[in-house]
Amino acid sequence: MLSSEDYRECLVKNLITIRDSIKVHDQLVESEKEIQRGVLDRLWVLSQRYSIISKGAPTKLNFPAVHPPEGEIKAEFLAKFCSLESSNLKLTTSLSNVKNTFSALEKFLDQMEVEHLSVLDQATSLQLPFSSCLEMLADLIKYFTKLQSQMNCFALLLRPDSVSSVELYKKFLKPNQDFSEHLSKSLAMLHILKKTKS
Questions:
Q1: Which positions ≥6 away from 120 have C-beta within 8 Å?
Q2: From the CA atom positions of the chain, what is the Rg in Å?
């Protein structure tokens, strides 16, 4: 049977694992968003060209080298779209890992015996009760889940004949400084976990 100290040790390690997995995921999100913004810049150009050609504008006849055939534009658009899908799949996989670490913590808590529940608040500073810590982590995961769902939806709306669909996705991917500051402050709170025994 585990002692209260053993439970506290396991609890702290679980919290640190979640904190670190969230950090890694956030870094990946920012990296992939930057890559996606670059891809969308190219998709915007392609959608503009597709719009010109599909409408049979004079430019189609006067500058064939500048505006390639419609089929070539569609092919490149599809290739770029696939790269966005690949990026979002990478993020979805990373988010799944974060959720798994949180589920492991919840499972651990469910298995704790009543007499050891007092170690919950002993695992964190008095400035951050365990219940608040758990709620904060759950809220962060909810944010990333909603973010990924929205990114997937915006990607599915992309079409070569819709410049606006590209512009909407680009606008959505703008850096969110408010959340970045909130995340930094939230994760900083988890740095004040009491040290585990060596």
A1: 11, 130, 131
A2: 24
Domain residue limits, the chain:
4-192
Give CA separation, 156 vs 1, 20, 62, 153, 185, in Å.
51, 31, 34, 5, 33
| Length of the chain, in residues | 198
What is the pTM (predicted TM-score) of this model? 0.84
Mind listing the pLDDT tens digit for each residue in 29-59? Answer: 999 999 999 999 999 999 999 988 887 655 4
- Alpha-carbon distance values, 8 to 107, 167, 186, 193 (Å): 15, 49, 21, 11
Provide the 3-class DSSP secondary structure of residue 159.
Answer: strand
CB-based burial label for 144 (10 Å; 0-12, 13-18, 19+)? buried
d(CA 118, CA 108): 15
Tokens of 93: 């996989």
Joined tokens for residue 184: 């930094």
CA trace torsion 40, 44, 45, 46 (10° rounding): 90
